[in-house]
Description:
Blueprint: H1 6-18, H2 22-26, E1 30-37, E2 45-51, E3 60-62, E4 66-72, E5 77-82, E6 86-89, H3 102-128
Parallel strand pairs: 1-6
Antiparallel strand pairs: 1-2, 2-3, 4-5, 5-6
Amino acid sequence: MRYINGEDLLAAFDEAEAGPEPDDLQDAPMIDNWFLIWRDGDVVRADGDVHGHPTIDDPWVTTSPVLGYDYDFDREEGWLRSVSRWYRLGQLREVPVNSTRPEQARRDALSAASHHLARQRSDWRGQYGPSR
């Protein structure tokens, strides 16, 4: 992962919270078969099959820390902003869950990740400075 200074990180927070402009996603890499991963005390990352990444040739990627995302379950598409770049999101991975309602469990997991990311952005804003 490339180094990012505090000012650029704050700008990336603003971008993640506002969502992408159309041009942001035009040439963005696509991640299919993806899911968000994180452990206690760690940052959220996405992993999956990547296509069109400018610097990674491996078909499997784990992103730099995720700052925000949005996913439409019905259309099976969305976007993700990591520390380093925008991604387009394709089909979500069929993660096995111990639930009688696996689709709802996946939605709940992504909702929990979204709340975790909001808290994390707030904590990092406190560490790196106020919003611009």
